[in-house]
């Protein structure tokens, strides 16, 4: 199965990065919905509001590292998820209510409302999928439709997310829906754990392969041949934490 059919949590990093690049100077982009802007400055403003105006922080995990990203911090999935999750959604709404312009953050809040549902579904929730008509999957469809409508609305690519990110989000959601449909059609009594339906296993395999070959950036087949078998046979294929299971009588 292609890794595009697996949940790539780096997509949340890419969404964060696209918002981070969104500014009124349109350099390199300014995400726009219905004439209103989605800006990184809006999230920064919400964070500053939480730090200076609230008696108890609304988003207790938020800190400077979330907004002043060096190359190492930029690769941490949880930092991207924190600025797009339900706590940030609630914080943005609270900040919006207390701002001078009550509608300034509306477009940003709308986007974070969608990303927060996706993050809860794929990362933070521990509720498995047992039905093909799961309401959370319908929310993923709503996220796709929101982005599709936005793409049709904008007059320039600079007002929309990057083509690569748009493709990756579609692949992630459609791919996961295909997994749900195939598995629950063939095995109706099975469950799917969304929080581990990702490509971490594939990336781990590649990391082990590189390590076995001296971190060679361009390994040839003959170099990898023996290590592939070693890694493959050394893995436990069935685990209580995976989306496969030992058949029961």
Please provide a written account of the structure.
The chain has helices at 10-20, 40-52, 71-74, 77-82, 86-97, 106-124, 135-153, 163-186, 200-212, 221-234; strands at residues 31-33, 36-38. It is an all-alpha fold. Helix 5 (86-97) runs antiparallel to helix 6 and helix 7 runs antiparallel to helix 8. 54% of the residues lie in helices and 2% in strands. The protein has a two-stranded antiparallel ribbon. It is globular and about 60 Å long. The longest helix has 24 residues, at 163-186. The protein has 10 helices and 2 strands; from the N terminus they run H-E-E-H-H-H-H-H-H-H-H-H.
Order of helices and strands: HEEHHHHHHHHH
Number of helical elements: 10
What is the terminal-to-terminal distance? 28 Å
Secondary structure: helix percent: 40-55%
**Taking strands numbered 1, 2, ... along the chain, how are they ordered across the largest sheet?**
1-2
Task: Flag low-confidence runs.
Answer: 1-5
Number of strands: 2
Outline:
With 249 residues, the protein is an all-alpha fold. It has helices spanning 10-20, 40-52, 71-74, 77-82, 86-97, 106-124, 135-153, 163-186, 200-212, 221-234, and strands at residues 31-33, 36-38.
Describe the structure using short key phrases.
mainly alpha; 54% helix; disordered N terminus
Helix and strand arrangement:
Elements: H1 10-20, E1 31-33, E2 36-38, H2 40-52, H3 71-74, H4 77-82, H5 86-97, H6 106-124, H7 135-153, H8 163-186, H9 200-212, H10 221-234
Antiparallel strand pairs: 1-2
């Amino acid at each position: 199965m292609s890794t595009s059919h697996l949940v790539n949590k780096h997509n949340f990093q890419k969404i964060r990065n696209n918002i981070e690049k969104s500014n009124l100077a349109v350099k390199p982009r300014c995400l726009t919905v219905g004439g209103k802007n989605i800006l990184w400055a809006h999230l920064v403003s919400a964070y500053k509001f939480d730090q200076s105006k609230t008696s108890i922080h609304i988003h207790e995990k938020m800190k400077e590292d979330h907004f002043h990203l060096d190359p190492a911090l930029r690769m941490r999935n949880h930092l991207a998820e924190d600025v797009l999750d339900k706590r940030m959604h609630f914080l943005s709404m609270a900040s919006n209510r207390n701002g001078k312009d009550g509608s300034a953050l509306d477009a940003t809040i709308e986007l974070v409302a969608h990303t927060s549902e996706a993050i809860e579904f794929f990362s933070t929730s521990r509720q498995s999928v047992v039905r093909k008509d799961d309401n959370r999957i319908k929310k993923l469809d709503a996220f796709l439709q929101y982005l599709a409508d936005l793409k049709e609305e904008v007059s320039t690519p600079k007002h929309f997310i990057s083509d690569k990110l748009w493709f990756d989000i579609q692949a992630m959601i459609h791919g996961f829906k295909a997994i749900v449909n195939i598995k629950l059609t063939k095995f109706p009594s099975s469950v799917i754990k969304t929080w581990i339906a990702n490509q971490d296993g594939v990336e781990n395999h590649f990391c082990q392969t590189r390590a076995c070959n001296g971190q060679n950036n361009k390994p040839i087949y003959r170099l990898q041949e023996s290590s592939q078998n070693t890694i493959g046979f050394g893995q436990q294929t069935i685990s209580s934490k995976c989306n496969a299971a030992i058949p029961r009588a």
